[in-house]
């Protein structure tokens, strides 16, 4: 096996041997956990010494009693050279006494005694030797040495996962590619464990880390006895124990012991039932055992607990148990309903639909029938097909009013299709039951949160989502509604220009993957939008690419390609933008994708505007302003109004621009900084008000809306140029270019260059006009406006309301004003405002 990675250990042994040849002998103890290559190291040292002409001797420890050549107590030691004793932890007491007797004389002898042992073996026996010897602890191989060893053994570069399996243990590394690895590793580990091998096997079988109490239960032992066994296994380097939890040190040992100990699973399951362990934990053991009447009875009793959050083992156990039942067995229909639910929550919507449909053909009683109808409807919702979700519930309407849980699913489906009348009817059925059914209450909270989001009551939406999160924690286990709550929260955060939206989306990503492609593509769309809004365009394009690589985009083609079009236009790649625009045009939006249809419409307006076809661009804007796109009933204007107003103003349709500004004024709720600044910007565009545009540009920049900040500065530059203020126009223009450059928006820079050149404004080689750092002239337009309102006696909150910005923004302005003016209070601002020069 070699001694790869042991150069330092060999060097220390070599130096000790050289010192011994000079008459300064000693005792050198090497301690190493099993499998770390201690014997190979000692053999290599002996070979090196023999090659150098140094006399050597190896003393063998004989099993089972540990006798050695030193056991008689009158051994004759060599006068000089190197003596090696391996497995000293197994040696008898007489051998240790002989070493003690020799150790005091070694410092004056040309003799080195090297002893190797396991560090955890009865430490008290070796305490004195460790005090008088040079002690060297052999560590696991580092990644480089482990990789080299595996490459030498297998002839190819090993994956990182292989290195992690053996945790740097050379013997285990040597077994990774063996055909009979599980048998060999199990024999090695249980041989070391001895009488504690049952404890080691159950520690491998139970959830990692295993608790002492669970181990005591499955072993029918006491926690005290288990702790004693754990200490022995820890001493052998097989397990680690921290705060009452036991973990096998090497993943490969845990895996192989578990695979060769499957016969203990049933015993473990029954013992854990007595401990009231979670049903999913028990199912993890039962899935490895033959299906018995006892297994079927237990699973029938606990199916409702395991099907909403199924592990692969739970799903497999349900499949095996259902397959084992004879036709007409009383457990058949309930377990098939549970199997359909488990398939649904595992992201296998097609299988869930098939199982539910086939089971409904058996005409189950209402409770089972309702569960199957719910599974069918939800499978369509997860596939972004709410129309068929609602239709899946139609047969149940023939029996009368929908049950409350089916009614909230119906309401969700109809909300996603834009059938608001149908939503109201479904809510009338469900709402009286919310107080008594947390699942119904959870659906209702998400439905109402969606409504508040559409109508731009963002604070109200967050309040409802907080209530939904509380229900999910304590009373309602529903992965689909958790996903809905989390994605809605991310959308609200993004609308509020809160960077936490991206963190929220990352939490949702694993669950979206488990629930199926429909949820994944929706997550990609929301993430791409949030990344775009945060100026992270390369990452946004990567999300679009990941989504469009999926086999089914579930009608999100339009918004996804629309996001790509917008970025490519800003970057000046019109040919690529046209390709994506054509793909977006072919999309047929339905379901949730209808809520994003305005993105597709806007990009067509942008392309038309860029191509100089202002009439076509204006026609698209009029369609959006009339609320004829998507299911927003005109409310989508709130998020895209700056683009629309800009096109209307540039196209010379002031009436349309005024209509859009009036709509935005009516729609915004006041709790979104982004929408308040958007309104300010739109008013500045409409009125050609330079100060308002510059103020909006600064506030966009402060709130992370990079592209909007650049465009507002550019529009201010054009307004200044039109009024003849060329120097100020150039300063604002350079600010816009700097912001565009940070986004690599080369297309916007080229377009702005052309438009400003028409006014005689060019960037040139020098930088923008600099403001002084202190005094009233150092204040920006926005800061001067805030100072004026403070001088009028307005509080920061009142000033924020007047300026349509956040209180935080005004607080920041006031702080900067005080710093630039050298003032310490608002009173000084009031006094200084009138006498400023």
UniProtKB/TrEMBL annotation:
Q: Is Transcription given among the entry's keywords?
A: yes
Q: Could you list the residue ranges that cross the membrane? A: none
Q: Provide the alphabetized UniProt keywords.
A: DNA-binding, Transcription, Transcription regulation
Tell me which InterPro entries the record gives.
P-loop_NTPase (IPR027417), Sig_transdc_resp-reg_C-effctor (IPR016032), Tscrpt_reg_LuxR_C (IPR000792), WH-like_DNA-bd_sf (IPR036388)
Record SUPFAM superfamilies: C-terminal effector domain of the bipartite response regulators, P-loop containing nucleoside triphosphate hydrolases
The family database entries (Gene3D superfamilies) matched by this protein are listed as: Winged helix-like DNA-binding domain superfamily/Winged helix DNA-binding domain
Q: Outline the extent of the HTH luxR-type domain.
A: 772-837
Q: Name one Pfam family in it.
A: GerE
- Please give the SMART domains that the UniProt record associates with this protein: HTH_LUXR
PANTHER family to which the protein is assigned, alphabetical: DNA-BINDING TRANSCRIPTIONAL ACTIVATOR DEVR_DOSR (PTHR44688)
Q: What is this protein called?
A: Helix-turn-helix transcriptional regulator
Origin species, per record, is Saccharopolyspora oryzae
